[in-house]
Amino acid sequence: MIEFFHTKDRLRFLLYVGAIAAPLLLISAWVVSSMEESAAAKGEPNAQGGLSYRIQEKSGARTLPPPLASLLSVPPNTAMTDVDVTADSTGRLSSAAVKAFSTDGFKTVAAFHRPTLSPVTTDSANSLEGVRDGYQIRISQETRFFDNDPYKDRTKIEYYINPVKKP
Q1: Per-position b or e across 121-150, b if 16+ CB within 10 A of its CB
Q2: Side-chain half-sphere of 162: how many Cα atoms within 13 Å?
Q3: Which of 5, 35, 48, 146 is the most buried (most CB within 10 A)?
Q4: What are the tens digits of pLDDT across the range 95-127?
Q5: pLDDT of 34-67, one tens digit each?
Q6: CB under 8 Å, gap of 24 or more: what pairs does 139-142 form?
Q7: Residues 6 or more apart from 35 whose CB is under 8 A from it?
Q8: 64 CB contacts (<8 Å, ≥6 apart)?
Q9: What are the CA-CA distances from residue 136 to residues 2, 33, 49, 64 (Å)?
Q10: Residue 81: CB partners within 8 Å, gap ≥ 6?
Protein backbone atom coordinates (compact mmCIF):
# COMPACT_ATOMS: atom_id res chain seq x y z
CA MET A 1 0.00 0.00 0.00
CA ILE A 2 2.78 2.44 0.85
CA GLU A 3 4.40 1.82 -2.52
CA PHE A 4 1.36 3.50 -4.08
CA PHE A 5 2.47 6.92 -2.74
CA HIS A 6 6.09 6.73 -3.89
CA THR A 7 5.54 8.85 -6.98
CA LYS A 8 4.91 12.58 -6.80
CA ASP A 9 1.86 12.38 -9.06
CA ARG A 10 0.10 9.91 -6.79
CA LEU A 11 1.01 11.86 -3.67
CA ARG A 12 -0.25 15.08 -5.29
CA PHE A 13 -3.52 13.29 -6.17
CA LEU A 14 -3.93 12.21 -2.54
CA LEU A 15 -3.39 15.78 -1.33
CA TYR A 16 -5.99 17.09 -3.82
CA VAL A 17 -8.52 14.54 -2.62
CA GLY A 18 -7.81 15.47 1.00
CA ALA A 19 -8.06 19.19 0.24
CA ILE A 20 -11.49 18.68 -1.32
CA ALA A 21 -12.84 16.09 1.14
CA ALA A 22 -11.88 17.77 4.44
CA PRO A 23 -13.98 20.96 3.95
CA LEU A 24 -16.92 18.91 2.67
CA LEU A 25 -16.82 16.68 5.75
CA LEU A 26 -16.57 19.65 8.11
CA ILE A 27 -19.46 21.49 6.44
CA SER A 28 -21.71 18.42 6.46
CA ALA A 29 -20.93 17.77 10.16
CA TRP A 30 -21.85 21.39 10.97
CA VAL A 31 -25.13 21.14 9.00
CA VAL A 32 -26.17 17.91 10.73
CA SER A 33 -25.30 19.34 14.15
CA SER A 34 -27.31 22.52 13.61
CA MET A 35 -30.30 20.53 12.31
CA GLU A 36 -30.25 18.33 15.44
CA GLU A 37 -30.09 21.37 17.75
CA SER A 38 -32.98 23.01 15.90
CA ALA A 39 -35.11 19.85 16.16
CA ALA A 40 -34.41 19.54 19.90
CA ALA A 41 -35.44 23.17 20.44
CA LYS A 42 -38.76 22.58 18.65
CA GLY A 43 -39.44 19.41 20.63
CA GLU A 44 -38.77 15.75 20.07
CA PRO A 45 -41.11 12.86 20.96
CA ASN A 46 -40.47 11.24 24.33
CA ALA A 47 -41.53 8.00 26.12
CA GLN A 48 -44.49 9.73 27.82
CA GLY A 49 -46.12 10.46 24.47
CA GLY A 50 -45.28 14.14 24.76
CA LEU A 51 -42.34 16.25 23.72
CA SER A 52 -38.88 16.88 25.16
CA TYR A 53 -37.29 20.26 24.50
CA ARG A 54 -33.59 20.95 24.77
CA ILE A 55 -32.38 24.47 24.13
CA GLN A 56 -28.79 25.50 24.59
CA GLU A 57 -27.31 28.94 24.13
CA LYS A 58 -25.85 28.17 20.73
CA SER A 59 -29.15 26.84 19.31
CA GLY A 60 -30.40 30.36 18.66
CA ALA A 61 -33.79 29.90 20.34
CA ARG A 62 -35.09 33.15 21.77
CA THR A 63 -38.24 31.91 23.52
CA LEU A 64 -38.97 29.30 26.15
CA PRO A 65 -40.81 26.10 25.13
CA PRO A 66 -44.64 26.46 25.33
CA PRO A 67 -45.13 24.26 28.45
CA LEU A 68 -42.56 26.35 30.36
CA ALA A 69 -43.42 29.81 29.00
CA SER A 70 -46.69 29.96 30.95
CA LEU A 71 -44.90 29.27 34.26
CA LEU A 72 -41.65 31.15 34.00
CA SER A 73 -40.60 34.45 32.53
CA VAL A 74 -37.04 35.53 31.92
CA PRO A 75 -35.88 38.34 34.22
CA PRO A 76 -34.21 41.37 32.63
CA ASN A 77 -30.42 41.14 32.26
CA THR A 78 -30.62 37.34 32.34
CA ALA A 79 -29.56 34.87 29.66
CA MET A 80 -31.05 31.37 29.70
CA THR A 81 -28.20 29.18 28.50
CA ASP A 82 -29.47 25.64 29.05
CA VAL A 83 -33.17 24.69 29.03
CA ASP A 84 -34.29 21.06 29.41
CA VAL A 85 -38.07 20.55 29.43
CA THR A 86 -40.21 17.39 29.34
CA ALA A 87 -43.95 17.48 28.68
CA ASP A 88 -46.47 14.63 28.79
CA SER A 89 -48.97 13.65 26.10
CA THR A 90 -51.43 16.36 27.21
CA GLY A 91 -48.78 19.06 26.85
CA ARG A 92 -48.44 19.54 30.62
CA LEU A 93 -44.96 20.07 31.99
CA SER A 94 -43.47 16.93 33.60
CA SER A 95 -40.17 18.49 34.64
CA ALA A 96 -37.86 21.33 33.72
CA ALA A 97 -34.31 22.33 34.53
CA VAL A 98 -32.96 25.69 33.44
CA LYS A 99 -29.54 27.25 33.84
CA ALA A 100 -29.24 31.00 33.46
CA PHE A 101 -26.68 33.73 33.99
CA SER A 102 -27.62 37.19 35.20
CA THR A 103 -25.69 40.43 35.42
CA ASP A 104 -27.85 41.20 38.48
CA GLY A 105 -27.37 39.58 41.86
CA PHE A 106 -29.54 36.73 43.14
CA LYS A 107 -31.57 39.10 45.33
CA THR A 108 -32.74 40.98 42.24
CA VAL A 109 -33.64 37.77 40.38
CA ALA A 110 -35.49 36.43 43.44
CA ALA A 111 -37.38 39.72 43.81
CA PHE A 112 -38.49 39.41 40.17
CA HIS A 113 -39.95 35.92 40.73
CA ARG A 114 -41.24 36.25 44.33
CA PRO A 115 -44.62 37.87 43.39
CA THR A 116 -45.43 34.99 41.02
CA LEU A 117 -45.01 32.28 43.68
CA SER A 118 -47.84 31.62 46.09
CA PRO A 119 -47.09 30.32 48.65
CA VAL A 120 -43.37 30.91 49.01
CA THR A 121 -42.06 27.89 50.92
CA THR A 122 -38.36 28.80 51.20
CA ASP A 123 -36.77 32.22 50.98
CA SER A 124 -33.07 32.43 51.81
CA ALA A 125 -30.04 34.37 50.58
CA ASN A 126 -29.35 31.90 47.77
CA SER A 127 -32.61 29.97 47.28
CA LEU A 128 -36.26 30.72 46.60
CA GLU A 129 -38.92 28.01 46.49
CA GLY A 130 -42.63 28.26 45.98
CA VAL A 131 -45.68 27.00 44.16
CA ARG A 132 -47.27 28.36 41.01
CA ASP A 133 -50.20 26.81 39.14
CA GLY A 134 -49.64 23.39 40.70
CA TYR A 135 -45.88 23.30 40.14
CA GLN A 136 -43.08 23.43 42.70
CA ILE A 137 -40.52 25.97 41.48
CA ARG A 138 -37.05 26.16 43.01
CA ILE A 139 -34.73 29.00 42.04
CA SER A 140 -31.22 28.89 43.45
CA GLN A 141 -27.88 30.57 43.05
CA GLU A 142 -25.20 28.15 41.96
CA THR A 143 -21.72 28.87 43.28
CA ARG A 144 -19.82 26.25 41.26
CA PHE A 145 -18.68 27.26 37.80
CA PHE A 146 -17.56 24.77 35.20
CA ASP A 147 -15.11 25.11 32.33
CA ASN A 148 -17.92 25.11 29.76
CA ASP A 149 -19.98 27.83 31.50
CA PRO A 150 -20.27 30.73 29.05
CA TYR A 151 -20.32 33.55 31.61
CA LYS A 152 -18.01 33.23 34.59
CA ASP A 153 -18.39 36.88 35.62
CA ARG A 154 -22.18 36.69 36.14
CA THR A 155 -24.50 35.23 38.76
CA LYS A 156 -25.35 31.62 37.89
CA ILE A 157 -29.02 30.80 38.52
CA GLU A 158 -30.66 27.37 38.37
CA TYR A 159 -34.39 26.74 38.06
CA TYR A 160 -36.05 23.39 38.80
CA ILE A 161 -39.75 22.93 38.11
CA ASN A 162 -41.80 19.82 38.94
CA PRO A 163 -45.51 19.13 39.47
CA VAL A 164 -46.61 19.34 43.12
CA LYS A 165 -47.08 15.87 44.56
CA LYS A 166 -50.58 15.42 45.91
CA PRO A 167 -50.83 13.81 49.37
Answers
A1: eeeeeeebbbebeebbbebbbbeeeeeeee
A2: 6
A3: 48
A4: 999 988 888 999 999 999 999 998 899 889 899
A5: 766 665 556 777 777 888 888 877 654 567 888 8
A6: 139/109, 139/110, 139/113, 141/106, 142/99
A7: none
A8: 55, 72, 74, 80, 83, 85
A9: 66, 34, 23, 18
A10: 56, 57, 99, 100, 101, 149, 150, 151
Q: What pLDDT is attached to residue 1?
A: 58
Residue ranges of alpha helices (H) inside 43-127 are: 66-69, 106-113
Maximum alpha-carbon separation in the chain: 80
Alpha carbon of residue 94 to chain centroid: 16
Report the run of H or E that residue 19 belongs to, with start and end.
helix 8-42
Percent of the chain surpassing pLDDT 70: 87
Q: Are the CB atoms for 127 and 139 separated by under 8 Å?
A: yes
Position 69, amino acid: A
Euclidean distance between CA atoms 94 and 88, whole angstroms = 6
Find, among 81, 96, 87, the residue nearest to 47 by Cα.
Answer: 87
